[in-house]
Structure to design on (958 residues):
């Protein structure tokens, strides 16, 4: 039992609310997967469980399971009588905890297919989803369904916890097999960030503290991951969108301010600034932001998810349901909508003119009919059934809708806030469905193909500008093609030396080559990043994109970057593959003892002395590539350079000699 | 510029959004104001949502007649400062009209009778939405409740058949006679509430801070002696320095021993506590494993 004074809480307090962000996470699974145990463990170990709650659970456990001392943590989250009686989760329960780093809201959602609509409720606002897999059973249909719904709702981060590792003797092979199995399914989905963690929720292995019984696992424990996962860039800060929610008009009551007219609402996307030119949709009227008001005074700018009140320079007719955007960046305005719809009612979706629905989108409600059901998606197999004629409870399909008035919307992939809607039954007022809008020109099979680029989600905020000059024309003019050589290896393994020699040799032969050096990039492009796993991931992502652009331009780009995590390098590879560019992963395999002996910058020595932490090879892991295009052992520099050039020739990047 | 906001700002923005949605989509909302800390936070959030305009709804207090006098004094003063309208629905009136029957004995409480008065007042005034300061961290039935909690024409909650609530899109459509209970601070914890009170510099009734009071001990809790409380033989009143973590009826709200007389010291105590506020101070929740769920089914807040 934890002691009475929790340092965690006091730290959270003294670091003040201002510095700690909020992470909303959803868990899915059944009691059998150990979901409640995991949540109980997180709450218990972060001291968010109170003594009277524990006593209450212990007492209830005694009543249910006899006096054998087991504390049934499921009783903590299953708050309804029916849930406790049946031992199942029916509806979402919300739980709260905080660490000095972050504040967390857990939406504990049911795993059973019957309660999918409740799972969608809990997952719709989540930044991160945890899917639990029982190590003994591996990936089952339910795990696939949870992953699919998470990807459908575009939860930016997915964590797969392989639980009950204690029951498979902490066997790395079991874990790896599950990772492989799940990854192959997930590759068909649009998930930008998946992390796998082997845990034992019952014993606490890799939940809060690193497990000592799985030293083969080199990633972070779950809580560390939750505290550090990079969520700041998940919001859409590109496309300014402001659905007008409430017109603030004091009228006579406020005396001096009777001329005041403001538009209250929550910023749904982008950054709005005082003085910005704006367009009001659907009317198309234009004006300028005169002020951004709050109860505490005026702001210079506002961004999601802030609730503010805008005043405009001109006196124009604006009411609830209108959308304020920028003249050159505004949403699609249309009465014809194309959406993925998750049906949540016993009354099925029917296509045709007589079934009218209320469609609520942002702060706007219109009437709608379903014009066409394109296909129904089998949630377990992802198979599309084009012969489907209706959607039943918990079924998902692609639907064309026609609305009574034009809607100003974005694709859901660009913004949850301006791309999601609900359907309401006009007669019963029941919420029938959640819908996710697609781009007007979205091809029917598109979502599968896009999964190839791991960065699809984040980059979906902006539209790619296709140049009039093609890559082929550009390369033809240069007389050769671009490619990326990705050198990975421990610090001081010799990456930079080899990369420099390769660059020099290529340039001497008249081939444009350019070296992207990890250390150098950290002075500029990546200057705001540290060495935590998520910062390293971001470091790799940016470097990979820079390399891709250079390669596209026709340069042989040589990246020398420790890039210790296999998943990050896979991202870099996918970024190139998605753009049809050559990518050679070169593993500079110098034994760690040799690297440490060389230590030209004295970094190993500092890391050993504890002066720097998170140093790859000392107190941070390095995951060797299982199948690099080329592996280099220490040796004569010219010979190593020759090996790289041969590999380039073999791939056709350089002409054969 | 990192464009990040603190967790309190995120919670605040969510609550403002909820207030404005209800005001826009429902005909006759009302804000339930008890003078307790959670409803004091609601008032500030309503100011943030609607000022410089007036609140597009009145405030209502379901007055059991067993309240702390300090809280009633504060209630009236705060309402006057805001310049808003207060409706007082009286449990005593319900009893006098024969709509509710007073419990008897030393453990009698008017807690459960509030439901009758609340439902009657909702009907009388034609309210279709009622804002409440309930939080999901308070109790496990509340942990299950939606932000827009749909109630049938008997005021009852059907926990097994709640409306899906997706993104920030709330379905407030109801039929005549039905109503929605709306909980804008559902996602706040007790500590969030206190930190927000601190940040906003909100005034609280004095009983939230340490003071001397005559109390007696019952079932491990300290209760104030008052005209509404009957002592059981063996219970001896004594003076102690206490404060309240929650504000309810004098008959069923326990005090905690504390010397925290300032907001800062109270927040520090809350941050370090190992017992939930309802567990420490509310007799009404101790009745059974599903006490709150049952009361909500009957139409409780």
């Amino acid at each position: 039992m934890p002691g009475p004074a929790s340092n965690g809480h006091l730290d959270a307090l003294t670091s003040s609310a201002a510095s700690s962000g909020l992470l909303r996470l959803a868990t899915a699974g059944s009691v059998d997967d150990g979901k409640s145990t995991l949540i109980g463990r997180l709450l218990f170990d972060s001291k968010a469980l109170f003594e009277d709650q524990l006593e209450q659970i212990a007492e209830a456990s005694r009543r249910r399971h006899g006096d054998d001392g087991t504390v049934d943590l499921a009783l903590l989250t299953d708050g309804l009588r029916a849930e406790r009686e049946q031992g199942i989760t029916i509806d979402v329960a919300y739980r709260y905890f905080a660490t000095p780093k972050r504040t967390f809201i857990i939406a504990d959602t049911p795993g059973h297919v019957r309660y999918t609509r409740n799972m969608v409720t809990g997952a719709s606002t989540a930044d991160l989803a945890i899917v639990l897999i029982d190590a003994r059973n591996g990936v089952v249909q339910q795990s696939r369904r949870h992953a699919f719904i998470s990807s459908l709702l575009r939860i930016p981060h997915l964590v797969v916890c392989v639980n009950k590792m204690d029951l498979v003797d902490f066997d790395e092979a079991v874990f790896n097999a599950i990772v492989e199995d799940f990854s192959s399914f997930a590759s068909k989905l649009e998930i930008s960030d998946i992390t796998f963690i082997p845990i034992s929720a019952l014993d606490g292995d890799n939940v809060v503290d690193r497990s000592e019984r799985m030293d083969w696992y080199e990633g972070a424990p779950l809580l560390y991951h939750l505290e550090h996962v990079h969520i700041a860039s998940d919001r859409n800060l590109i496309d300014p969108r402001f659905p007008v929610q409430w017109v603030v008009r004091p009228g006579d009551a406020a005396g001096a301010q009777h001329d005041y007219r403001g538009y209250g609402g929550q910023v749904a996307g982008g950054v709005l600034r005082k003085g910005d030119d704006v367009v009001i949709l659907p009317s198309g009227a234009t004006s300028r932001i005169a002020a951004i008001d709050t109860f505490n005074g005026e702001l210079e700018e506002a961004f999601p998810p802030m609730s503010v009140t805008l005043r405009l320079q001109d006196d124009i007719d604006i009411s609830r349901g209108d959308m304020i955007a920028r003249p050159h960046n505004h949403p699609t305005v249309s009465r014809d909508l194309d959406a993925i719809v998750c049906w949540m009612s016993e009354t099925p979706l029917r296509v045709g003119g007589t079934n009218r629905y209320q469609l609520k989108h942002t702060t706007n409600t219109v009437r709608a009919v379903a014009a066409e059901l394109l296909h129904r998606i089998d949630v377990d197999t992802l198979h599309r059934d084009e012969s489907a004629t209706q959607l039943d409870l918990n079924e998902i399909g692609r639907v064309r809708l026609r609305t009574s008035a034009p809607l100003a919307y974005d694709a859901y992939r660009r913004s949850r806030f301006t791309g999601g809607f609900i359907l309401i039954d006009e007669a019963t007022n029941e919420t029938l469905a959640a819908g996710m809008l697609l781009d007007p020109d979205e091809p029917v099979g598109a979502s599968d193909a896009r999964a190839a680029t791991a960065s699809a989600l984040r980059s979906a905020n902006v539209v790619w500008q296709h140049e009039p000059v093609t890559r082929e024309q550009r390369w033809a003019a240069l007389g050769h093609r671009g490619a990326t050589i990705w050198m990975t290896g421990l610090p001081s393994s010799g990456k930079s030396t080899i990369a420099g020699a390769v660059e020099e040799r290529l340039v001497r032969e008249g081939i444009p080559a350019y070296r992207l050096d990890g250390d150098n990039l950290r002075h500029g492009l990546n200057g705001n990043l540290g060495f935590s796993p998520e910062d390293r991931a971001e470091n790799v992502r940016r470097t990979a994109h820079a390399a891709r652009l250079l390669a596209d331009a026709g340069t042989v780009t040589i990246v020398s970057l420790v890039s210790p995590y296999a998943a990050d390098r896979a991202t870099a590879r996918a970024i190139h593959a998605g753009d049809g560019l050559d990518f050679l992963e070169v593993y500079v395999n110098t034994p760690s003892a040799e690297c440490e002996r060389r230590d030209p910058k004295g970094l190993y020595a500092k890391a050993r002395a504890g002066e720097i932490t998170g140093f790859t090879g000392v107190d941070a892991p390095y995951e060797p590539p299982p199948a690099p295009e080329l592996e280099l052992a220490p040796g004569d520099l010219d010979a190593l350079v020759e090996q790289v050039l041969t590999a380039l020739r073999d791939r056709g990047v350089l002409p054969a000699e | 510029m990192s464009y990040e906001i603190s967790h309190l700002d995120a919670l605040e923005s969510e609550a403002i959004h909820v207030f404005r949605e209800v005001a826009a989509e429902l005909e006759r909302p009302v804000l339930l104001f008890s003078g307790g800390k959670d409803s004091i936070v609601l008032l500030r959030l309503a100011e943030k949502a609607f000022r410089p305009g007036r609140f597009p709804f009145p405030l209502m207090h379901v007055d059991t007649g067993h309240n702390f006098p300090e809280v009633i004094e504060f209630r009236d003063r705060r309402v006057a400062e805001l310049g808003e309208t207060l409706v007082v629905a009286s449990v005593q009136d319900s009893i006098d009209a024969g709509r509710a029957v007073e419990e008897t004995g030393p453990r009698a409480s008017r807690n459960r009778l509030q439901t009758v008065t609340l439902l009657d007042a909702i009907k009388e005034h034609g309210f279709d939405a009622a804002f409440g300061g309930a939080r999901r961290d308070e109790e496990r039935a509340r942990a299950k409740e939606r932000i827009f909690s749909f109630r049938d024409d008997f005021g009852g909650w059907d926990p097994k058949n709640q409306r899906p609530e997706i993104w920030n899109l709330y379905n407030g459509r109801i039929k005549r006679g039905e109503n929605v209970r709306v909980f804008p601070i559902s996602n706040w914890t007790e500590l969030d509430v206190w930190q927000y009170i601190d940040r906003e510099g909100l005034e609280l009734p004095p009983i939230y801070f340490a003071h001397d009071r005559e109390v007696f001990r019952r079932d491990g809790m300290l209760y104030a002696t008052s005209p509404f409380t009957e002592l059981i033989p063996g219970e001896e009143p004594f003076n102690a320095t206490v404060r309240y973590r929650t504000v309810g009826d004098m008959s069923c709200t326990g005090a905690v021993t504390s010397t925290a007389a300032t907001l800062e010291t109270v927040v520090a105590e809350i941050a370090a506590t190992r017992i939930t506020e309802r567990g420490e101070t509310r007799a009404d929740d101790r009745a059974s494993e599903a006490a709150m769920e049952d009361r909500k089914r009957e139409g409780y807040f």
In short: The domain at 333-447 of chain A is CATH 2.40.30.10 (Elongation Factor Tu (Ef-tu); domain 3). Chain A touches chain B through 84 residues (CB under 8 Å). Residues 596 and 602 of chain A are 9 Å apart (CA to CA).
